Each structure stands twice: as C-alpha cells, then as structure tokens.
Amino acid sequence: MFRLYSEIFSIELEYIFKLVLYSLKVLKMLDEGKSREELMDELNELKAILESNQESTKKIIENERILSKTALELVDLPPSVDIYDFIAKKLGDLIENSLIAVSMYDEPSDSILVRSVIGENQRLIELSQKIMGVGLTDIKLPLGSFYEFYDDKEHQKNTILSGKLLKMEDGLYQVFAGRLPQKITRMVELTMNMGDMYGTGFESKGKLYGTVYIFLKKGKKLNNKELVQSLISLFAVAIQRKQAENEIKKALKEKELLLKEIHHRVKNNLMIISSLLNLQSAHIKDEGVRNVFRESQNRAKSMAMIHERLYRSTDLKNIDFGEYIRSLTTDLYRTLVADPGHIRLDVDVEDVKIDINTVVPLGLILNELVTNSMKHAFPDDETGYIKVDLHRKNEKIVLKVSDNGIGFPEDLDHKKTSSLGLQLVNNLTGQIDGELELDRSQGTSFALIFEEKE
C-alpha cells in the first residue's frame, strides 16, 4: 500500500510540475498576444498531460489490485491445488496470445522440471515428443547446463538466477541452455509462429525455486512488464513458503510416526510385563501374594490399553477417555467377577477427549477404584451393581465409581490408609490437581473432580 501511494504521489508531482510550466507558458502567450490557434495547441497539450496522468494512476491502482488479489489467493490456496499450475494459469490469463511454461527446481536431482504449461496445442506436444522424446511436462534439464551455457556467453546474465524478467535474445536455444541444436530450436519457433520470449527464475533469498518462461506469438508485445515482474517476485515468495510448509508437515508426520512407534513399543513392553506377572502368579500358592501379582498385572494392562489407543489414534495428544473406560471396565469385569449374575456393571460415560498427561494417571485411578469395588464390595456372593460415570460439570470433569455393596469402613480414612491401591489413587489425584470425594451414604461412591488441561 505504501508503494502504491508513493508511485501515485510521484506521478501527481510530475503532473503538477508540467501543469505549472504549461500554465506559465499559456499566460506568457496571452501577454504576448498569441493567436487563438496557438493558444488552443497549448491547451490541448495540457489536456493530454491530464489524460496521461489519469491513465497512469488507473494503471497503478489496477496493478496493485491484481497483486493484492493474487496474494490473497495464494494465502488461501487449497492443498489440492498445485501452486505451479496456479502460477501458469494466472500468467496465462494476464498475458493474451501466450504460452506459459512453469518449472520447479528439484534439489535431489539438481534439475529443472517442467510442471505446468498453459497455452500448449497438439502440434507443440507432438514436436516435444519427437524432439525431446517426452511430453512437455516431462522435460527435465540439469541445472548445471545453465551454468555451462552462460559461462560460454559471459556478456549475458544467467537468466534463471537473476530473478529479473529478461528477454531471451537467442530464443528457444537460450531457453534450453544450448542442449538442443540451434537449427532445431529455430525450426520449432517458425513452426509455432513464436515471437519474443521472456524468462527468469523464482528466486528468493538467494535460493532458486523454479523458472518461468513466457512465449509470445510473433508480432505481439509484452505489455505491463512491471506487473508481470511483480507477480513473479510474489510467486517466488509463495513457492518458498509452500515448500517450507511442506517440510514442516513432513517433519511433523515423521514425528507422529515416531511417537506411534514409541507408544506401540511401550504397549508391547507393558503387555510383556503383565504376561510375566501372570505366569509368575501361577506358581504362587499364597493367595495374598497372588492377589498382589494380579493387581500389578491389571495396572500394567490398564496403561498398555492407553498406549494402544494412542498409537492407533490420529490424535497423539488426546484420547477418547469414554471409550477407554468402557474397554477397561469390561476387561476388569471379565477378570475379577467370577459370577456375572451376582454383580451388574453399569457404565454411563460421555466421550471426553483428555490430554495424554492426564489420561495415564486417570487410567490407573480408574483401575484401582473399579478393582476395589469388584473385590471388596460384595463378599460372600452378595448381589449388587457397580456404576462408572464420566460427565462434564461446568468447566470440570467428574469421574465417579460407585457401588451399593457393604460400604467403605467408617473408621477408615481413605486419605490416610496403608492400602497400596488407595495410596496410589491419592498420589495420582494430586498429580492431576484433582479432588477425591467419598460418599458412604449408599454403599461406596468415589468422585474424582478435575479440570481439563489445555
């Protein structure tokens, strides 16, 4: 916008200066008694200056409009649209009766690869197949060939590295960096009725991102060259940004795959630990010791299930905790409840996405509370139910594990107990900055209240 005002101001200043000069000249002619015809000639010159100034101002404003519109289109360019096709079409729409060829620089092969051609016809395609052995968009030129070509012509600037739109004085021979005989390139020019040719590279911060060539029909001129140059500079920056975005996406994809692999291996290791504990418990005769092994086995499995969901998920940061609760409680129910007819399991949960830093300790807390109800709430084959709820309440999340069993002992403080399971629950509750509440009014009900971390 500043450049727009600057250019308009420069034109207006020049216009005012000329206007003053011609006005003074007219006044002098009036003093000298010049004829009406002479005065009309001067006034016509003044009118021409005014009209020229208006046209120049309109042209600048229109150019800025095109540049601004193109910049916004590049910013909002959908991932499905190839940026080289976009550039070729944009220039093709701007420059009538032209052929536009846009190429990219391929760093691994150190070559220029033609990506998009606008304005091509069947005859040109046939010539490309006959001379080059490939289609127009399959043409590949080693970057080194351009250096070799321009080294032999020291008086000419290396077009593709300049970033400035230059006329190809040697026509197609120069476009192909001397890799085709001059007789062949001249024959193609005559066959296709080609006239002036212009070319340059998409250069930004000293790095080459591709090339663009403009082929005009014979007798046609490149109008508004300043706008074309500005667009090419804009395209160079856009390609640079697009490639940077692609590199970031690639790095993120690699990181995602690495994290998935880590979660997969952690899950496998935890399952191995769980299996080893299971095998070891089979050789233990003491029931108390065997229960300790089984509890440790279930803890390992509860963490393994979390990592399994993470490596299968598209979101490596959050996990659907509602679905996790359904799976874990079902698994514990099958393992710990010998007779499903005596104890009913009710699960009422919302599908809540929870951060991985919260979900691992939360999974262990859930495992301990559900295991405690299944093991101790219904002694001597008593019947009842265990219910697990997960709901949002205001800006917090509430996880509740309740049962209508014999109830939590009145003389036992759940926050100060020798039970390893409850010690683990209290420590993990503090880890996620939560609050653990106990209700003994109807059986036992533990409610864990915590905030969702951003």
CATH superfamily of the largest domain: GAF domain
Overall domain count: 4
In this structure, how is the largest beta sheet organized? 6 strands, antiparallel
Q: Rg to the nearest angstrom?
A: 39 Å
User: Shape, please?
Assistant: elongated
Give the CATH architecture of the largest domain. 2-Layer Sandwich
- The CATH class of the largest domain is Alpha Beta
- Strand segment count: 13
Extract low-pLDDT stretches: 1-5
CATH topology of the largest domain: Beta-Lactamase
Gap between N and C termini, in Å?
39 Å
Class computed from helices, strands and strand pairing: alpha+beta
Strand order of the largest sheet: 3-2-1-6-5-4
Helix-strand string: HHHEEHEHHEHHEEHHEHEEHEEHEE
Q: Approximately what portion of the residues adopt beta-strand conformation?
A: 15-25%
Mean pLDDT: 81
| Helical stretch tally | 13
Estimated helix fraction: 55-70%
GO molecular function, one term: kinase activity
Coiled coil: 234-261
Domain Histidine kinase: 261-454
Protein name: Sensor histidine kinase
